[in-house]
Amino acid sequence: MLERMAANNFQLVEQKPLVEVDDLRVRFVSRDLDVQVVNGVSFKLNEGKVLCLLGESGSGKSVTMRALMRLMPSHAELRGNISIDGNDMLSVPARKLRKLRGRLVSMVFQEPMTALDPVFTVGNQIAESVAYHDGVSAKAARARALELLELVQVPSAARRLDAYPHELSGGLRQRVMIALALACRPKLLLADEPTTALDATVQIQILLLLRKLQEELGMATIFVTHDLGVACEVADDVAVMYAGRFVEHGPITEVMDRPSHPYTEGLLRSTVHGSTRGKRLDPIPGTPPDLRDLPSGCAFAPRCSYVRESCGTSVPWPFQAGSDQHTARCFRLDPNEGWAATT
Ligand SMILES: Nc1ncnc2c1ncn2[C@@H]1O[C@H](COP(=O)(O)OP(=O)(O)OP(=O)(O)O)[C@@H](O)[C@H]1O
């Protein structure tokens, strides 16, 4: 009886999210530049879950990811709150931040050659990261590097430990990059278009590998992609970005079944994945906005077929779009606007 009560109570306690981002704003300011590229992003992500960031080029996906690790150039101004496993990422001192990068959160980049050092063997690079974070001997770190190369399914891993990055194919380099990112068993993995630079068959292999590792290791993952098919394959939740904002956010199945922002609708109509077989693809008219010169209300209004006068007056806030986890920034969802009956 007591056990059952304890179990019921346990179910009632809501899981504390691993990642909590509140009103994140990123602005680049220098002598001849002043541009707000992320503009009020808020979201939560639980342990072991996958969030995909989707959106056109320049919408702020990569900058949002880098902000989570505070990997920003000196002319970036970050505002808002980012908490990862209780760590306030925007205010932890630089020394602690270096420890958190790798151990708490680490990143797989689009192009591994930018992250791997060409003058060290891949084994040395992975072992160095293990030794730095875990404080183990050089021998133990090398043994762990071998384990990691095996985990990411690098063939002949023992031999590949002594290879330099340029001696490996693109797909193998990406696997090494993943091994490096996993070296300290992070709770959160950030993957910024990790397959874009690879050819189609290798892309699928790397995606399957990432999904398998994510499930086996129970890591939360944030995945940046342009590709709706990839999002459907890997995500629990999706956030659609437009001009530095999440214009739609929710469980992937709900967003795909019932897109509630006109931009998400457009994305679905414009991709092979979203269109019905045999039906013509329908590109979104117009071009993405210039972030230095955004319209005063909804940034999507100039391209939107539902646009009304009120869209130009204020920025829509996130309205509930389905379940209480699904929101979209569109006035069509405002119960006070009375649009539902007319659109
Ligand atoms: N270091 C920087 N200095 C100034 N502007 C920058 C910097 N990095 C990114 N930006 C600008 O921030 C905006 C968002 O860039 P971001 O790389 O996040 O877009 P994205 O959605 O990831 O696009 P893509 O899919 O092409 O990678 C762009 O307008 C970009 O030019």
Automatic annotation (TrEMBL):
One of its GO terms (cellular component) is plasma membrane. It is found in: Cell inner membrane. GO terms for molecular function: ATP binding; ATP hydrolysis activity. Its main location: membrane. CDD domains: ABC_NikE_OppD_transporters. NCBIfam families: oligo_HPY (TIGR01727). PANTHER family: DIPEPTIDE TRANSPORT ATP-BINDING PROTEIN DPPD, OLIGOPEPTIDE TRANSPORT ATP-BINDING PROTEIN APPD. This is Oligopeptide/dipeptide ABC transporter ATP-binding protein. It comes from Aminobacter aminovorans (Chelatobacter heintzii).
